[in-house]
Structure formats: C-alpha cells, structure tokens
C-alpha cells in the first residue's frame, strides 16, 4: 500500500535541482534506467522513475476533498504537500459552473501568494487531465514561493473578465468558506 503524506500548510515543496540517482548514463531512455528501492531524491516511491511522473499544482476544485479531486486520485496521483505560489498572482472565482472553479493569472504588480497543493501523477495520465480542462483554464508553469516552477492550472486573462477577484483571500477554501 502506498503511503500518502498529509498536506502541511505553511511548508513549501521543492524538487531537488540535481539529477535523480540512476545507474545508466545520461540520455538513456527512462525504461532502461534501474528503478529505485524505497524513495529516491525526488521522493518518488519504488517502482517509479522521476522521468515517469509529472508534478501538478492545483488551487481550486482539484484540492483534497473538493469536487474534482477524484480526477487526480482516480489516476493514482499522490499528494506531495501544501504550498504557496510566489506572490505574483491575481486570483479569481470564475463565472459558470456547475462546478465552481478559480483562475490564477500571473501579474507584474499587485499579486499575492495563493495556497496550492502539489500532486504527482504518472506521466501517462497527464494528457487525460489536460484534455479534460475547460477553457479558459489550462496548464502552464506556476512559480512557487520557494522559487521553483511546476506545471499547474492557470487561467487566460480573458477568462477573468466576468469573474470575481478573490486575491485578498489567498485561497479557494477561504473563498468557499466566505461564500457559505
């Protein structure tokens, strides 16, 4: 059974910058690398190569316990932890539904840190997640508070025109609690 580590608010997730341990020379396809036992430097469990996984930052309906989280867990995604974005984002409750969703937009000025979770899933399942994302949302790179960049849900600027800015709340859960 896989062990899932609980999210720890206030703790920052950071992927190591060094190459993961491997016995094959660089350039060897991932399928020919020796798999690790236990956890490697990236925290990837035995039987998974870091090259076989994708880390995804979520900030809304895909968070633990919220309506779209099943789209991650059904694909075997594993929660790595709670993080915050760099203080470079505006945050909006988007119009539409029936599942309400937020959108983050990176800005040059006036942004804030937004509460997020980082999930890891097998790369073979990443495409099916991306394919199911409705416009104006998409996957882009999100800068975390510790300066690292990960793939994550982002919003096209035009998508927030009919939305409500909730940047001051700093989290989707905060907006849901305020909304009642």
What do these coordinates show?
With 180 residues, the protein is α+β, with helices and mostly antiparallel strands. It has a single domain, classed as Roll (Hypothetical upf0131 protein ytfp). Helix content is 12%, strand content 26%. It is built from three helices and eight strands, in the order E-H-E-E-E-E-H-E-E-E-H. The strands form two sheets. It has a five-stranded mixed β-sheet. The chain has a three-stranded antiparallel β-sheet with strand order 4-3-8, with no helix packed on it. A hairpin with a 5-residue loop joins strand 6 (137-143) and strand 7. The termini are far apart. The relative contact order is 0.21. This is Allophanate hydrolase C-terminal domain-containing protein. Residues 54-177 form the Allophanate hydrolase C-terminal domain. Residues 1-35 are annotated as: Disordered. InterPro entries: AH_C.
């Amino acid at each position: 059974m896989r062990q899932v580590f609980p999210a720890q608010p206030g703790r920052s997730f950071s992927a190591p910058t060094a190459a993961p341990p491997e016995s094959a020379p660089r350039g060897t396809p991932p399928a020919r690398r020796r798999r690790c036992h236990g956890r490697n430097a990236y925290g990837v469990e035995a039987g998974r190569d870091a090259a076989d996984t994708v880390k995804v930052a979520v900030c809304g309906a895909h968070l633990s316990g919220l309506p779209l989280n099943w789209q991650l867990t059904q694909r075997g995604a594993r929660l790595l932890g709670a993080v915050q974005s760099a203080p470079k984002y505006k945050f909006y409750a988007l119009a539409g539904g029936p599942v309400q969703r937020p959108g983050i937009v990176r800005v040059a000025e006036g942004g804030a840190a937004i509460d997020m979770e980082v999930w890891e899933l097998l790369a073979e399942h990443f495409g099916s997640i991306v394919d199911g994302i409705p416009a104006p949302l998409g996957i882009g790179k999100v800068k975390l508070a510790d300066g690292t960049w990960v793939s994550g849900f982002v919003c096209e600027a035009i998508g927030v025109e009919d939305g409500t800015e909730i940047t001051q709340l700093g989290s989707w859960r905060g907006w849901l609690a305020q909304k009642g």
